[in-house]
Amino acid sequence: MLTLLRVWRLIVLLVWTLALIPVQFAFVLTGSRLQRALPIVFHRFVARMLRIQVEVHGAPSADRPVLFVANHSSWLDIVILSTAAPLSFVAKSEIARWPGFSILAKLQRSVFIERRRGKAKEGVNDIQARLRAGDNIVLFAEGSSGDGNSVLPFKSSMFSAAEIDLGGGRLPTVQPVSMAYTHLDGFPLGRRQRHRLTWYGKMSLPSHLWNVFGQGYARVVLQFHAPVRPNDFASRKDLAFYCHARVAEGHARSINGRPQQVVAVAPPAPLPPPGVVAAPPPA
Predict the structure, then answer these.
(1) Can you give the residue range of the structural domain that contains 164?
(2) What is the number of other CB atoms lying within 10 angstroms of the CB of residue 251?
(3) CATH number of the domain enclosing 242
(4) Distance from CA of residue 106 to its chain's centroid?
(5) Would you state the pLDDT for residue 278?
(6) Is there a domain that residue 267 lies in?
(7) pLDDT tier at 23, thresholds 50, 70, 90
(8) Which of 117, 112, 157 is nearest to 137 (CA)?
(9) Cα separation, 179 vs 7, whole angstroms
(10) What are phi and psi of 112, to 5 degrees?
(11) Are 224 and 56 contacting, i.e. CB atoms less than 8 angstroms apart?
(12) Would residue 278 count as lying in a domain?
C-alpha cells in the first residue's frame, strides 16, 4: 500500500513539476514579476501532496530586500520556506550540477557559491548583487544540514553580504528564521525519529525521498523572528551570534512543544558576545 502511495505521489509531483517548468522559464526569461510568485504556488502544492502542515509563527518582514537567516536540516526546508514568501536560496555550487534539482534551483534563481577557500568573497558579491536588485535571499548559516535536533554554530563570513549600502545609508533587513520538524501522524518526534524527515550527513538522497513520499502527516513549526539591521551590531560576528541565539532558541522551544508567538517589535538590542556580561538596564 505504501509503495502505491509513493508511486502516486511521485507521478503527480512529476506531472506538476514538468507542467510548471516551462511557465517559470518564460517568466524568468522575460523578467516577469510572476517569477517570484509561481514558486510559492508550486511549493504549496508540494507541501499539500506530501501532507506537510506548516505552523507559522510571526511573519516575513515586509521590507525589501531581506536576508533571511535560517537553520537547515532537510531538502524539505526549501519547500517549507518557499510556501511563506517569494524567496531565492544560497546553495552550494555542486547543486548546480545535480540532475533535476539543478533545474528547479536555477528556476528559483538560487545563488550558487563555492565553499573552497578563497572563493567566499565571490559568493558574498553574488549575494550582494541580488540584494541590490531587491531580491529576498535565504542563507542557511550553518553551512551544512544538521540532524534537526539542534542548531549548529553559524558561520559569520556570509553575513558580510548584508553590509551594503542600498542608498541613503540603508542596509538590508536581516531576519532570523527557525524551522523544527515536530510531529509525524500526530505524534511528537523524538531525537531518534526526527531523521525520518531530516536529511543530513551521508544519507542517500534517493532513499530519503522515497521514504518521505511514504510518510503520513507531518507538522513543521516555522518561526519568523524580529528583523534587525546589520548596523544594529558592532560586527558581523555579533550579528551572526545574535541570529544563532534567536534561531536556536526558537528551534528548541518548538521541538519541546513551546513555540512562542513572534510579534513585530523594534529591533532588539544585540546580545553580548560569549564571555561578556551585559550591563544591567538603567534604573
Answers:
(1) 2-255
(2) 25
(3) 3.40.1130
(4) 16
(5) 41
(6) no
(7) very high
(8) 112
(9) 28
(10) -90, 130
(11) yes
(12) no
182 in a structural domain: yes
Is position 188 within any domain?
A: yes
Output the CA angle 149-152-156, nearest 5 degrees: 155
What pLDDT digit, counting tens, does each position of 229-282 carry? 999 999 999 999 999 999 999 999 999 887 655 443 334 444 444 444 344 444
Given a cut of 50, is residue 5 above it in pLDDT? yes
Specify the number of domains making up the chain.
1
Contact in structure between 51 and 44 (CB atoms under 8 Å)? no
Strand partners, 183: 188, 219
- 141-194 per-position pLDDT tens digit: 998 888 889 999 999 989 999 999 998 889 999 999 999 999 999 899 988 888
Report, as an integer, the average pLDDT of 214-220. Answer: 92
| Single-letter amino acid code for the residue at 133 | A
- DSSP labels, the chain: -HHHHHHHHHHHHHHHHHHHHHHHHHHHHHT-THHHHHHHHHHHHHHHHTTEEEEEES---SSSSEEEEE----THHHHHHHTTS--EEEEEGGGGGSTTHHHHHHHTT-EEE--STT-HHHHHHHHHHHHHTT--EEEETTSS---SSS-PPPPSGGGGGG----STT---EEEEEEEEEEEETTEE--TTTGGGT---TT--HHHHHHHHHT---EEEEEEEPPPB-GGGSSSHHHHHHHHHHHHHHHHHHHHTT--------SPPPPPPPTT-PPPPPP-
pTM: 0.87
Q: Taking residues 67-73, what's their average pLDDT? A: 96
pLDDT at 84 over 80: yes
Phi, psi (rounded to 5 degrees) for 52: -105, 120
Q: Judge contact between 39 and 86, C-beta under 8 A.
A: yes
Q: Provide the grid cell at 30.
A: 522575460
